[in-house]
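Long-time lurker, first post. I've been practising inverse folding by hand and with some scripts of my own, and I keep getting stuck on stretches where the structure tokens seem ambiguous. Below is the full token string for one chain I'm working on. Before anyone asks, I'm not after the true native sequence, just a reasonable design that respects the backbone. If someone could post their per-position residues I'd love to compare against what I wrote down in my notebook.
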């Protein structure tokens, strides 16, 4: 699978290149064709943290995260830092961390793929019996790891963080998030918990199932909810960003919201049907009115009402077409079956005994 690999006694820098003529059975679906397998060890815990322009925060984050992980499981964990095409020194810092600590694995994506795909890349490489997802900007407190593990020990598959307070988040963000979760709750086919992000601890089997879901438009918190099993919430206060600015631009937020709404409901498509039903009723009423006016000799001189009607119906039609477009676009992109993300480089300590690749990691999924 790996075409090129540099090794020194204590570390390995693995470069991924497409495999030339690998035979592939017709039934195999390649979910992460470009994510190479990491060697075998299965730590008790993997932590996946997506990083986009987090140079100012990374030092503080890795410090607190490593402390929390050590307190919870000694040395038996890996911290996977996924650099999502940062334009600052984030990748250089991650590389340095990965080369100096055997617990840190650095993954460099080929470009900015967005938060959800950066997490997806990390999850496909995570080898732990349990996997935690956490933002790298310290809005999610790493110290909650211990509490999450305790809750999971009670027999849960997923412990997700639910935000009690969101310190210093803009009114705009809080208002739009509120509207989004309400809409999602009203139309989604599964119950997706409100006020949650992707901050969570998941069991290995949930991660395996998540990795096997081939959809391109990934709304991870919804996908995990869809997987079911025993899930519970852990209330927490979301802190302010440690430093730097949010990587979620308005367009990324809108995209995530649309992914959430369209991935878990076809209700918007039915809205098109409802609107056209309403349109037919209004048109029918108008026709009766027009005939009655003609018979009684009262003709309507105004064209304003006519114009209004034309505008109303053409807007409704455009809205319906836009809804179709949202779904059709997703079907089109899914049809291409492109890889979800492209890993450029993985930096980690070389194991003393480079054993066989861990099962199911970064390999073809059926
Ligand atoms: N992030 C990412 N790719 C992006 C945007 C963000 O990997 O394109 C990471 C970012 O570094 C952080 C997490 O995803 O660790 C959440 O992003 P951010 O804090 O910018 O979003 P917000 O908390 O403002 O919603
Ligand atoms: Mg943040």
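-- Answer (accepted) --
I ran through it position by position. Result:
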């Amino acid at each position: 699978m790996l075409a090129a690999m540099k090794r020194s006694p204590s570390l390995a820098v693995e470069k991924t290149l497409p495999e030339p003529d690998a035979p592939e059975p017709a039934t195999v679906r390649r979910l992460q064709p470009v994510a190479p397998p990491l060697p075998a060890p299965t730590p008790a815990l993997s932590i996946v943290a997506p990083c986009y322009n987090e140079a100012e925060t990374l030092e503080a984050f890795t410090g607190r995260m490593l402390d929390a992980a050590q307190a919870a499981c000694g040395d038996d964990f890996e911290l996977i830092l996924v650099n999502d095409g940062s334009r600052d020194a984030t990748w250089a810092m991650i590389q340095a961390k990965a080369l100096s600590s055997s617990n840190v694995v650095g993954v460099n994506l080929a470009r900015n793929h967005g938060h959800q795909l950066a997490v997806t890349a990390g999850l496909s490489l995570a080898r732990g019996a349990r996997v935690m997802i956490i933002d790298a900007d310290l809005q999610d407190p790493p110290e909650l790891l211990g509490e999450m593990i305790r809750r999971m020990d009670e027999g849960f598959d997923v412990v997700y963080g639910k935000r009690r307070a969101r310190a210093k988040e803009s009114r705009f963000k809080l208002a739009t998030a509120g509207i989004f979760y309400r809409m999602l709750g009203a139309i989604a086919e599964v119950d997706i918990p409100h006020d949650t992000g992707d901050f969570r601890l998941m069991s290995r089997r949930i991660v395996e199932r998540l990795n096997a879901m081939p959809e391109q438009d990934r709304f991870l918190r919804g996908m995990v909810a869809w997987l079911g099993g025993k899930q519970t919430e852990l209330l927490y206060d979301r802190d302010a960003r440690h430093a730097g600015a949010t990587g979620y631009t308005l367009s990324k937020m809108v995209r995530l919201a649309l992914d959430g709404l369209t991935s878990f409901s076809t209700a918007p498509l039915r809205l098109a049907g409802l609107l056209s039903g309403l349109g037919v009723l209004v048109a029918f009423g108008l026709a009766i009115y027009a005939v009655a006016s003609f018979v009684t000799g009262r003709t309507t001189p105004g064209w304003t009402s006519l114009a209004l009607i034309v505008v109303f119906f053409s807007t409704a039609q455009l809205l319906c077409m836009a809804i179709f477009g949202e779904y059709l676009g997703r079907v089109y992109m899914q049809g291409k079956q492109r890889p979800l993300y492209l890993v450029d480089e993985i930096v980690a300590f070389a194991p003393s005994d480079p054993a066989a690749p861990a099962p199911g990691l970064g390999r073809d999924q059926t």
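A couple of notes from the structure itself: The chain is about 45% helix and 20% strand. The two ends are 17 Å apart (CA to CA). Happy to go over any region you disagree with.
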